[in-house]
């Protein structure tokens, strides 16, 4: 054998040994991939793999040899082969605990918009990982992680979250272990967390799940650090705290979790962190760091937060902190600092977190700052002592400061009623920020809390407009402003996302809001009269009396004017006739805003009143206003109950009687004509209001008079409503009005009880999966069912069903359910409808032919079914050439569609219900392939007569 042949064999032998060593080296512990877009004009991203290597024993040569990594890029929704790219190591550094962190950084330009996956595979994982592959030959498993991103120009220079806390801490048997990745999203997007199964590469660029067990299930059943059973392993979906409370068996474990990135309700990215947890029988107790409450501040506030940690073993403690707030590349200065005057103190350590917040720090999502304490042997054999840690997170919300000095004054305007708002120049002049204006009828307070930004939902304020951040005034001259109504205003500043391009669509999403300004209450003079009282003074079929009061309009005293009071029979009556004409000089000293209406049948009827107001103009009287009508309070018997009396009452008035206290009176049998107040109730929900008298007097202030309700005894009642206009200029503030008096017994069957009605609901989410279900259907059915109270008189002959096409319309009889069979059916199918929309109530009819009061009103609406595609191909092949809704749009009344290009310029609009866009402008010019944005205003057929349109926004790709 020649010398050269021997050399060749030797070289091959050592080469084989090298590859065998490489293939079986145990070195990879943890890692994740992050990405950030670095170009405004192309979908070019900087991609980084952060890899954690085990450099103990034979893992170090393998870690040192990991000079290059193979990255894979491809569609997240396709199984097509992926593009690979070899990337050299950028840096390596030792971070302790026999671990180095290697970074591999590259750039990649994606072919277009869409969801893409970036993945990396490394050989090999550590051996003897107990919860992977049943702990067998885990060093033969490779390490695979991936990250998914949405590439779309509308997201601007988006970047994935950065994970600032390395996963290298040790866990101890029987002690709570916690890891938090300290994920920071520089764009202000919201993050959520989920447990994930560790993976290995199946084929190049694609991962498959490794046989995996929850680490909490390895070995004997454990218990928590506090002694509860069983032990737990979970991740907090909001904070990202990965908690194992507590490991039972020492050894090596691998776990993984997802970090999901969300913007405006849409997921735009996912990162997988695969990490290793090493559990030891530590001769040590973990230190404890005191938890910290979340902080809310206005921008400009200086935060100074003490942080302390203790160790019951008296060990040396090191207290550190990580977070985006320290990094000027992630958060604009001023940046936070964390100082610990005496690191390494025994048993206890303290530090101070300091941050001077500013305007650039305002955002919707909180800033998370991680604090970690680590112990070390104070004395003795440190070789037998393993360091343990504890950590906690401080969440800081930075809101925009409150706008100041908001005022509102009435002003003249050609449009009619108008109010001018002014405020101080806002202190945070952030480009792209804007000021939103809100208005409410009445002077409404909102909660005062530094952790409540903007206008809370349900506060009664409606957004009416917006101006640029540098503006200090706004004119409210919108249609619908009413004379004689007080208005209050507040303003809120809305901020762009941190680092957002203000030319991007949706740049304000994630930016957050300021604290709402103080209220500017504009108490508009009550120029016109309003009715304030319709109270029953006398109950009689022939001599009943009702007192009507109203406010005096604001006008110059001495000017001849006239009130004309009109009356209609019934709470909803429209047959108004004039019952009094009162001339007035509007003199406050004259009692001309009151009228006592006499000789009425208040026993059987309610009455409704309206006031016509006229003033002298050009020498003669002219009508200038007609008030809203107001009815008397009508008290009626409710359900017949053997041992109680149920009362129902209602009043159709322009002021508010709901959510207020109403007073219940019962006649004192020992003093006929004297009524004893037996209870006060706070009304809730709609009318009629209701009360059940069980005989107990629950209002002792005027004497306690209890009775035993008997079927043989008649009881007389009246109620007093307490209402308000919520306008401080209308006096009195509280409007008191009595009902008529009614007398009845517990067995009184004068009127049956109203049934309780329900309607079959539509599962819109399920129906939207098959929108074609209504394509060829032109007749619809609503199925009604009801129950009749068991405690009521069951002697019924029929049920009557009433229907109105729109809310607020007077329902008409559409069906009667009669006997036989006995018992009566309690369901009804309303057939032959053109849609599901409409409102119903049901009444019960007893054997005397007396009909009950209406049941509760139930309304049903159609499902808004209008689904649009996100791609079409207008290339003339008669396949997918038109942008239109899927299947057939159901229950659509009208459509307004606008199409915009990526720069926000409108290129097309139509009112065609089916849109039918052919990829051209309205002028017929063919548009280029690419992404376009649509805003479609769809008005669906509804139970509401004038329904608000549904706004659908999205994007569509033209592919040619």
UniProtKB/TrEMBL annotation:
The keyword Nucleotide-binding does not apply. Pfam families: CHU_C (PF13585). InterPro entries: FN3_sf (IPR036116), Ig-like_fold (IPR013783), T9SS_type_B (IPR026341). Residues 1-25 form the signal peptide. It comes from the Bacteria. Keywords: Signal. This is Gliding motility-associated C-terminal domain-containing protein.
């Amino acid at each position: 054998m020649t010398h050269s042949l021997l050399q060749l064999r030797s070289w091959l032998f050592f080469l084989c040994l090298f590859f065998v060593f490489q293939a079986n080296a145990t070195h990879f512990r943890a890692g994740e991939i992050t990405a950030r877009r670095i170009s405004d004009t192309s979908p070019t991203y900087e991609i980084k793999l952060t890899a954690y290597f085990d450099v103990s024993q034979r893992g170090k040569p393998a870690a040192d040899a990991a000079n290059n990594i193979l990255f894979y890029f491809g569609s997240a929704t396709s199984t097509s082969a992926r593009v690979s790219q070899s990337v050299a190591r950028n840096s390596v550094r030792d971070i302790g605990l026999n671990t180095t962190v290697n970074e591999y950084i590259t750039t990649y330009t994606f072919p277009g918009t869409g969801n893409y996956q970036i993945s990396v595979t490394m050989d090999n994982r550590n051996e003897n990982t107990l919860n992977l592959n049943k702990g067998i030959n885990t060093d033969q498993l490779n390490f695979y992680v991936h990250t998914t991103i949405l590439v779309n120009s509308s997201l601007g220079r988006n970047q994935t979250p950065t994970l600032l806390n390395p996963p290298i801490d040790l866990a101890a048997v029987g002690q709570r272990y916690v890891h938090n990745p300290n994920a920071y999203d520089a764009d202000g997007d919201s993050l959520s967390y989920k447990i994930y199964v560790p993976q290995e590469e199946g084929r190049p660029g694609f991962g498959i799940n490794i046989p995996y067990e929850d680490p909490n299930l390895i070995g004997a059943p454990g218990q928590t650090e506090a002694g509860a059973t069983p032990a737990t392993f979970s991740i907090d979906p909001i904070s990202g705290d990965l908690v194992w409370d507590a490991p039972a068996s020492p050894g090596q474990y691998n776990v993984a979790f997802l970090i999901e990135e969300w913007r405006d309700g849409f997921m735009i990215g996912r990162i997988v962190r695969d990490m290793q947890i090493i559990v030891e029988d530590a001769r040590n107790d973990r230190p404890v760091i005191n938890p910290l409450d979340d902080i809310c501040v206005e921008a400009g506030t200086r935060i100074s937060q003490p942080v302390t940690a203790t160790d019951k073993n008296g060990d040396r403690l090191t207290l550190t902190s990580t977070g985006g707030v320290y990094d000027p590349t992630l958060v604009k200065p001023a940046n936070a600092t964390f100082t610990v005057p005496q690191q390494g103190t025994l048993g206890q350590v303290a530090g101070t977190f300091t941050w001077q917040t500013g305007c650039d720090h305002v955002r919707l999502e909180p800033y998370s700052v991680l604090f970690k304490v680590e112990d070390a042997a104070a004395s003795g054999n440190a070789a037998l002592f393993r360091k343990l840690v504890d950590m906690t997170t401080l969440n800081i919300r930075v809101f925009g400061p409150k706008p100041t000095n908001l005022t509102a004054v009435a002003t003249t305007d050609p449009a009619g009623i108008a109010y001018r708002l002014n405020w101080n120049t806002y202190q945070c002049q952030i480009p792209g920020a804007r000021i939103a204006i809100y208005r409410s009828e009445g002077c409404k307070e909102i909660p005062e809390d530094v952790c409540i930004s903007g206008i809370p939902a349900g506060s009664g304020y409606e957004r009416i407009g917006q101006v640029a951040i540098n503006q200090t005034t706004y004119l409210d001259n919108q249609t619908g402003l009413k004379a004689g109504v007080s208005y209050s205003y507040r303003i809120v500043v809305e901020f762009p996302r941190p680092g957002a391009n203000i030319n991007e669509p949706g740049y304000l999403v994630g930016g957050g809001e300021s604290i709402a300004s103080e209220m500017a209450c504009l108490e508009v003079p009550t120029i016109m009269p309003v009715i304030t009282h319709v109270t029953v003074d006398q109950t009689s079929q022939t001599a009943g009396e009702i007192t009507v009061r109203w406010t005096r309009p604001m006008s110059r005293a001495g000017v001849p004017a006239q009130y004309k009071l009109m009356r209609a029979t019934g709470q909803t009556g429209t047959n108004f006739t004039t019952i009094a004409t009162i001339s007035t000089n509007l003199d406050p000293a004259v009692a001309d805003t009151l009228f006592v209406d006499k000789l009425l049948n208040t026993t059987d009827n309610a009455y409704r009143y309206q006031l016509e107001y006229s003033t002298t103009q050009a020498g003669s009287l002219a009508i200038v206003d007609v008030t809203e009508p107001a009815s008397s309070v009508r008290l009626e018997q409710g359900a017949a109950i053997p041992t109680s009396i149920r009362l129902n009452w209602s009043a159709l008035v322009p002021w508010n009687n709901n959510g207020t206290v109403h007073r219940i009176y019962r006649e004192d049998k020992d003093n006929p004509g004297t009524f004893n107040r037996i209870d006060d109730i706070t009304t809730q929900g709609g009318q009629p209001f209701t009360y059940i008298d069980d005989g107990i007097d629950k209002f002792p202030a005027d004497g306690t008079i209890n009775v035993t309700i008997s079927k043989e005894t008649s009881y007389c009642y009246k109620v007093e409503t307490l209402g308000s206009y919520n306008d401080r200029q209308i006096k009195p503030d509280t409007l008191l009005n009595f009902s008529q008096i009614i007398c009845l017994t517990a067995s009184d069957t004068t009127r049956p009880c109203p049934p309780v009605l329900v309607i079959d609901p539509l599962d819109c989410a399920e129906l939207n999966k098959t929108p074609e279900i209504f394509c060829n259907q032109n007749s619809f059915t609503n199925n009604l069912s009801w129950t009749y109270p068991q405690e009521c008189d069951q002697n019924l002959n029929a049920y009557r069903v009433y229907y109105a096409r729109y809310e607020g319309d007077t329902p008409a009889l559409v069906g009667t359910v009669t006997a036989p069979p006995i018992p009566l059916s309690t369901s009804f199918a309303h057939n032959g409808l053109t849609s599901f929309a409409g409102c119903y109530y049901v009444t019960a009819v007893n054997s005397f032919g007396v009909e009950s009061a209406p049941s509760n009103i139930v309304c049903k609406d159609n499902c808004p079914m209008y689904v649009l595609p996100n791609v079409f191909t207008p290339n003339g092949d008669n396949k997918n050439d038109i942008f239109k809704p899927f299947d057939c749009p159901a229950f659509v009344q009208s459509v307004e569609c606008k199409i915009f290009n990526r720069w926000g310029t409108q290129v097309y609009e139509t009112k065609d219900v089916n849109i039918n866009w052919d990829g051209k402008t309205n002028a017929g010019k063919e548009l280029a392939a690419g992404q376009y944005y649509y805003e479609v205003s769809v008005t669906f057929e509804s139970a509401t007569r004038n329904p608000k349109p549904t706004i659908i926004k999205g994007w569509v790709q033209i592919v040619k």
